[in-house]
Write a structure and sequence with these properties.
The chain is an alpha+beta fold. It is built from 4 helices and 3 strands. The longest helix is centred in the last third of the chain and has 13 residues, at 76-88. It is globular and about 40 Å long.
């Protein structure tokens, strides 16, 4: 990933777990470093992401930590608006529901 970023390629995090793992393995200089073990990183708005340029995410259940991370990446107001539209259009929520692409 460091090489891809150095060459100007975009990084897409596929899911909130991947997004969190990328941020946990990212050093202060913005580069992925070798990482082993667990993390207690909790991401919520506002948060300055260092690795991914885009993210695929399910429509998570309200008040969940997964929704907090998604709102941190996609901007809280934009994400909540997407949720309002999803409710109106009867999208499916949860792990087997619809998905959204968030581009930074």
């Amino acid at each position: 990933m460091n090489k891809a970023k150095d060459e100007g390629h975009k990084i897409v995090a596929v899911g909130t777990t991947v997004q969190r793992a990328l941020e946990a393995a990212c050093g202060t200089e913005g580069r992925i470093k070798e990482f082993e073990g667990w993390t207690n990183k909790f991401i919520f708005p506002p948060y300055d992401f260092s690795v991914a340029d885009a993210m695929l995410s399910n429509f998570h259940l309200p008040y969940s930590t997964l929704l907090m991370l998604t709102a941190a990446f996609g901007d809280y107001d934009y994400t909540m608006h997407a949720y309002d539209v999803a409710l109106q259009e009867k999208y499916q929520f949860g792990p087997f529901g619809d998905v959204m692409l968030i581009v930074d």
